[in-house]
User: Fold these one by one.
Assistant:
Number 1:
Amino acid sequence: MEFQHYINGQWTASSDGQTMPVVSPATGEVVAVVAKGTRDDVGRAVAAARAAQPAFQKLTAFERADLCHKVADEITKRREALAKHLALEQGKPMQAEAFGEVDTTAKMWRMAAEDAKRLEGTSPQTEDRRKRIVTIRQPRGVVGAITPWNFPLAIPTEYLAPGLVTGNALVWCPAPTVAGLACLLMECIAAAGVPAGIVNLVTGEGAVVGDEIAGHPGIAMVGFTGSSATGSLVGKRAAGKPSLLELGGNAPTLVFADADIKRAAESAGRGAIWNAGQICDSTERILVHRKIHDEFMHELLKVVAEFKLGHPLEATTTLGPMHTAREIVRIESHLADAAKQGAKIVVGGKKAEGLPTGNYFPATVVDGVRPEMLLNHEETFGPVAAVLTFDDEDEAVRIAHGSPTGLAAAVFTSDVGRGFRLGEQLQYGIVNINEGSAYWQLHTPFGGYSGKTSGHGRLGGRYTLEEMTCVKQIVFDIGG
Ligand code: NAD
């Protein structure tokens, strides 16, 4: 498959004609060739977006919502092809996960459509009898979206659908390793009849295309999902602009002695291995009360053993390859650090042999992890469940706070008071009680805790619509 940028309603080559391959982590084969964007390409996209946005803003929310529903229809029409390409280009198992992401993506376009119809302004009270005040929400203008590779259809949609439905134009830079999929999603948007210039796609290297988007004076707002390190660069480049930064996580799950141990092990085990652990709110660390450690481990190992590593197009596969070799290097370094300091790799821990690429890594459980190990304080982003033990609630909280991130946490306990108390106390943007850290409903606010490295702003339902609009007040003097 060969693709170009999509700028001003046209498929168009890079200004210097360069292209780049997109390689499947599952097979090592080139699955797409895409345009390698330049700073000039971003300039063209921003100019097109700025020219198109004012007329688009005049449509009603209901008219823009219709477009979102049409995008969802186009996604659903291409369900099979999208899921297959998603499995090949990103690596997630087609049956177990890729169809789910395609369906969720279509649902997100529909949810944004319906949420936007109900976005309201206010009519504040006034001190002055001659005045009447209304507030309205207006689009920011041109929004830049920079997105990662772990959910290459759903995460871009978190920006594109709410951005479009609130009347913004967008310039989008996807991660280069999933740029073919971005072009397939762009085809759905184009086929839905979204006007030229409203959604523009520039593929290429993040350090060029993403950097130019973040800093471009014609971009009014930046939405970024990715690592904390890149997010901090983007935040600096976008200084002064409203921004949504959805960054890295290292979610702890606290399992107390009074918990339903089987249920906790199921949630934590699946939450650690799902999408090969490449989820920002993946269960990276499991903190278990010492008294129930052995029983919990027994249950956890049963859950983890159910994952079948293999080619993502095989119907029985439930764990695909890691997305790139870079991920494997980081996982191996975290495991080596843990082993060196005395932790025990109970299952997995070594790259699988005899599969089509070197990217296949088995579900791994490490026991005896301690707070000072990399597994506890850095994001591993792989299919690794790291198990630590604690003796009391204070120690559990201390360990949980041993990572600079603050995205999601989970607590398993049958003590309602403790659940509520920790829900309030833990410095994470989401705390799930008796549910795994990777659980999130799409219409609810998702994002990092202030003062941590997981970013700022909230994605989800009306929260994204609010971030992507600005409040204006209009004051009337009514005379009399
Ligand atoms: P990444 O930071 O490497 O890349 C993210 C995006 O930034 C890509 O499109 C990349 O091309 C672009 N980019 C790279 N350098 C850039 C630069 N200098 N300026 C502007 N853009 C640049 O992240 P990744 O490896 O693609 O994704 C994995 C990370 O994303 C993990 O840390 C994960 O936790 C995080 N993540 C967070 C959320 C969330 O909602 N908080 C969701 C998914 C993933």
Note: The chain is about 40% helix and 20% strand.
Number 2:
Amino acid sequence: VTASLLIPPEKLGTPEMSDSPWALLPTASNHAQALDDLYLFITLLCAISMVLVIGAMVYFMFKYRQRGPNDKTDPITHNGRLEFIWSAIPAVFLVVIFVWGELDFMKLSAPPSDAIDIRITGQKWLWTIEYPAHPGGPSLTCPRNAAECPAEEKTPTLIVPLGKPVQLTMTSVDVLHSFYIPAFRTKKDVVPGRYATMWFTPIKEGEFPIFCTEYCGDEHSSMLAKAIVVPPEQYEARVAAATKLERETTETMAAYGQRIFTVMGCPACHTTDGTVKVGPSFKGLWGKQETLADGSRVEIEDNYIRESLMEPNAKLVQGFPPQMPTFQGKLNEEQVTALIEFIKAQQ
Ligand code: CUA
């Protein structure tokens, strides 16, 4: 929480806010206005009820105040008609809220059949966003030259087309996370071992922040992403550029490895400056002798790195939790080689 408070809002990609302190967030999806309307209805209902109840209370306190030491209250039993009215009227409003909410909830739960399929994976503390129609890597704001990207441009990016329905199929590899796009008014828990789905049609172009909104550990508050709504005719090209993970002809293997390192979200757990996060730092790692959890020794070389990518829990270095997801099927041989070259270069 502290970390996100220190980051200026423009760095988080927060959309422009209205100057009015009463304004809600931008309504950037098809669900947003309906949710705001219901929210406003409930708020007004609460405000009116409060005025009626507190008003009657103050009025009766004054009207039936004790006027002298011998002023005794008449014995009060009950008033059937009054009690019926004050139960029935709120009950009708509660039913209205239920039916209204249920109708909106049904719309939220039923994606149109032509929705674009996007996959989201949550893990401590990173969202991986993948497009089955565009195999490659998960998308970041600027993966093409990731090394030069400012830190806030390395956030995972959900690229969606204006006016087209999108369905997210989401899961988690470790604990419970929750995928929340405030400007779209959509939020859903992401649970390990099952899929959760969410759908929306973006109705406003622009960049909108995405948060993890279920406390999931130390770095919960930095588990951010960004939704970018682009014109539909730009969508295909933007996604293709963001997910591209082939080696550029001019790129060295180590530079390609660095790009894969960033795009695949490895910096969430590994650093290259010696700082130990969830996993070991890559600085000076190549050729090092490490002690494994079972006490045996291993040298960090090609085979060890390859095995750690494919079966991360096979040989755990002492003191590190078994938290790395497998990259089996996600990296080809050239990409594994590039990562090895990248780790080799971190001396
Ligand atoms: Cu993931 Cu909080």
Note: Residues 1-7 have pLDDT under 50 and may be disordered.
